[in-house]
Amino acid sequence: MGGHTATEKILAKKSGNKEVFPGDAVICDLDLVYHHSPWLAIPLFDEIGEVGSVFDGDKVTFGLGHHVCLPSTQEYATFLKQSREWAKKYGIRHVYDMGTGNSHLLMLEKGHVFPGALCVGGDSHATVYGVLGAFGTAITYEVADAMLSGKTWFRVPATVRIRLEGATQRGVCARDVGQHLVGDVVGADGALWKTIDYTGSYIDSLSIMQRSILSFLAVEMGGVTGFMEPDRKTFEYIRNRVHVPYEAEYNDSDCAFEKEWHVDVSKIEPLVGCPPRPSNNKPISEVEGVKIDQAYIGGCTGSSTEDFRMAAEILKGRSIHPDTRLIIVPGTQEILAEMRQEGLLQFFEDIGAIISAPYCGPCQMMCYGFLGEGETMIGTHPRNLPGRAGVNVNIFLSSPYTVAAAAANGRIVDPRVML
Amino acid sequence: MGKVYQGKAFTFGDNVNTESIMASSADHGAHLPIAECLRFYDPNFAKEMSSGDFIVAGKNFGNSSSRPAALVLKAMDLRAIICESSARIFYRNTWNIGVPVLECPGVLSIVERGDELAVDIENGQIKNLTNGKEIQAEAPIPLLLERWEVGGMIEWIKQHPENYPTVIKFHSAGVRKNVEGFFGEVNEADAVHDKG
Predict the structure, then answer these.
(1) So what's the pLDDT on residue A368?
(2) pLDDT, tens digit, for every residue of B90-117?
(3) A79 and B170: CB-CB below 8 Å?
(4) What is the distance between the alpha carbons of residues A134 and A80, in angstroms, rounded to a whole number?
(5) Nearest CA in chain B to A216
(6) Could you say which of A168, B16, B44, B194 is the most buried, measured as most Cβ atoms within 10 Å of its Cβ?
(7) Strand ranges (DSSP E) for A253-366?
(8) What is the 3-state secondary structure (H, E, C) of A83-100?
(9) For residue B194, is pLDDT > 50?
(10) Do A44 and B154 touch (CB under 8 A)?
(11) pLDDT of residue A2
């Protein structure tokens, strides 16, 4: 009898079973139910009946400032006002409003996610909660159900393992490693309905924020969650953030992984995810010269202080190309404060970048900063689907190094020659 | 034998994403983006599909954003989706909204756009009436089938009050308060929802 994966152990514990196996459908107790767009979920309460409150006012959270750092339409302004009223009415105590940041990062920063937790969010990138050793994933329509019952069902996923070894070249970072996995190793559906378990010396070497890029990208490979076993860095990160008791879960040494990939990250070159989908990778040499109207550093997969440090390394002593605009979107207020302390805000201000309040960024048309018809953007964010950030636009995905290099040159260039 | 539904097939390839089904470029608040639905892959789909028709698609259907894209398909009264494989969030949302998703490896090889299908959703049996070929889909997850059979998640919740201690009063079955906002348009479609 083999052992169990961490996913199986978390889902067994939360469903009150001694053990569970891949393929089992189980109903589990939840530690977090998060939504950035309560106007999608709460109207369903009125369809069900008369609701007194959510199941637990500490375990249901709203991230109102995720997509909307400042509303630009009457409709969104009203949605936000309604959401604040709903939070009061239904006893939701943790509301992260406009300007607080990308709410996935806030769920990590503010201690809502912890090792061994079972977390759901009404957003596909909820896979990121795996970065702290939680099982985190998205449900959307069923968020209304979960907010009231405190439970949801899961089909227990098998686990695939990605072992990352070595160190990246200068000018290459975790965003490139993630792009390599999405486009070249796993593919858009290579981890469909599976837990992705990241391990290896490269993971060990990264900060929690850089690791989170890989956990965010799990969904772009079809993954249910982007899990990492908690280590010293995890426990350091959650100290002073998590204030509830928790129990970390690890993979048993004799558990079965359905598949295992080994990647030597030292061989990875700067990569660009090209239209029309995130997995459409091209090496930088094949897209050099593409003219860029808007360069964007921010979003789920590029808005931590380290990402902005990388961009500043490239842009130091240079200026932004006159035909290109550079948008900087810090992930959260905590990151914004770090950037201020390090002089990064002053740096980007001095070179004429647009510095936004923290939110999820101009990645789709519900956020501000989308593109004019026919324009081209390069960004550190995770998605480039047709229609997402404007009508008939071209969106390229890459690392902060490559985005900064494009901002300086007005076209895509290899960032390594600028370091 | 479960109930057999008949309708026309509209075919799509691999990796069709939710952005294409429910465009974020559309005005989300007041209207569902029906005219834009799947335009990138088949510009005539929204115009040509009729109530009760099927989508037949490749691998990883409904990938990417977790938006409840099936609200658009539900409002169009699509009967079901039959795909080689489905993205997970889309699969969950879509059954709960009241549109079944059958995973059926090989289905694209026996169906062409415009073929007439007869589908037993409960048992996953698919027959192509145009060319006579048959194929068996994977069994739907029982708890999702149960929700679909009563008319979707909302109706199921109303029938299981014991799971929802903070709900003071439940509307009776079939009654849905028509609320202002995002779901306004969908509720009208639901009001005539055929539970069979």
Answers:
(1) 77
(2) 999 999 999 999 999 999 999 999 999 9
(3) no
(4) 29
(5) B64
(6) B16
(7) 259-264, 271-273, 281-283, 294-297, 325-328, 354-355
(8) HHHHHHHCCCCEECCCCC
(9) no
(10) yes
(11) 85
Domain definitions of chain A by residue range: 6-262, 274-418
Rounded to 5 degrees, φ, ψ at A50 are -105, 115
- What's the CATH class of domain A6-262? alpha beta
Q: Which residues of A touch B179 (CB under 8 A)?
A: 43, 46-47
Identical fold between A6-262 and A274-418: yes
Is residue A272 within 8 A of residue A396, CB to CB? The reply is yes
Q: Compute the residue count for chain A.
A: 419
Give Cα separations from A344 to A164, A316, A333, A403 (angstroms).
30, 11, 14, 16
The pTM of the whole model exceeds 0.90:
yes
DSSP secondary structure code for residue A412 in this structure: -
Do B124 and B102 meet the contact criterion of CB atoms below 8 Å apart?
yes
- Out of B67, B166, B187, the one facing A51 most closely (by C-beta) is B166
Cβ pair A283, A303 in contact under 8 A: no
For the question of an ipTM over 0.90, the answer is: yes
Alpha helices in chain B (DSSP H): 18-21, 45-48, 70-75, 88-97, 142-149, 153-158, 184-191
- Which helix (H) or strand (E) segment holds residue A147: the answer is helix A143-149
Contacts with B87 from chain A: Cβ below 8 Å: 189, 192, 222
Confidence of residue A365 (pLDDT cuts 50, 70, 90): confident
Q: Is 3.30.499.10 the CATH classification of the domain at A274-418?
A: yes
pLDDT at residue B192, as a whole number: 31
Taking contacts as CB-CB distances below 8 angstroms, the residues of chain B near A25 are 141-143
For chain B, how big is the Rg over CA atoms in Å? Answer: 16
B159-168 per-position pLDDT tens digit: 999 999 999 9
Distance from CA of B108 to the nearest CA of A (A): 17
Determine the number of helices (DSSP H) and then strands (DSSP E) in chain A. 15, 19
The model's pLDDT over B44-99, given as tens digits with 9 standing for 90+, comes to 999 999 999 999 999 999 998 888 899 999 999 999 999 999 999 999 999 999 99
Task: Give the pLDDT confidence score for residue B178 in this predicted structure.
Answer: 46
Q: Are B96 and A151 in contact (CB < 8 Å)?
A: no
Residues in chain B: 196
